[in-house]
Amino acid sequence: MSNNIYIGYQFKVSPLQPGVEILIAELGYAGFESFVETEDGAMAYIQKEDWHDGILNDIQILESDEFEITYTFEDIEQVNWNEEWEKNFNPIVVDHICSVRAPFHEKPDTIYDIIIEPKMSFGTGHHETTHMMIQHILKNDFKNKKVLDMGCGTGVLAILAEMKGAKPIDAVDYDNWCYINSIENVERNNCKHITVIEGDASVLKNKKYDIIIANINRNILLNDMAVYASCLNKNGMLFLSGFYNDDIPIIQQACEKHMLKFEEKLERNYWVSLKFLN
What we know:
Elements: E1 6-14, H1 19-30, E2 34-38, E3 41-47, E4 68-76, H2 81-88, E5 92-94, E6 98-101, E7 112-115, H3 127-139, E8 147-150, H4 156-163, E9 169-173, H5 176-188, E10 194-198, E11 209-215, H6 218-231, E12 232-244, H7 248-257, E13 261-268, E14 271-277
Parallel strand pairs: 6-7, 8-9, 8-11, 9-10, 11-12
Antiparallel strand pairs: 1-3, 1-4, 2-3, 5-6, 12-14, 13-14
């Protein structure tokens, strides 16, 4: 890890749950890179070069009457991310079928066992949306389907798609760290059919997929919906997550504008995931 200067925020949150979960997810979308849950809230880290005065302006939970949140912040020279993660990273087990764990966790008794190095792009705040997207993948037929994992993060969803028989698979993320980490995790899980691509929706020109997975924030989904629709084959499936129950009408409207039909909704602690058909 480089000696980049980070700014560390210490948040006190009441009530703790689902307050910490929501806060971490929103901070992740705002550019914070790593999180550590504490007894009374969470620590959040962002590189100083990515920080600005209004970094918290779009963090909706800070304006909510349902939670009391206070914070302090300071410059931090170095953070031993791996040490922090090893103390705080817990495996995820979805429906007793699929596990997402770090190399230092014991192998669970699940059909699909995904090993992710616990670094910055896999925050605890992504558990709810990741959990629901994993559920979608487990419930649907991916065998020999051409798949796009958009905003792949660690590559966990692309990896599960391959385990379910999908091929070929494109895993795309605009963040260089996520791009590198996805390549590492694809190799770590012995995947043979995943191509990791660094970029945004502009790299999808002239590409076609049977299934598109996009676990990103609401504004990016809305901005890129036309691209997703144009890339989806007839009778294709689109799985979306990264937004709240209140966001469903605007997401659904954007999908229906492109003739995508609503099929199913999953919900966990304020977060939702939707399935649409082409």
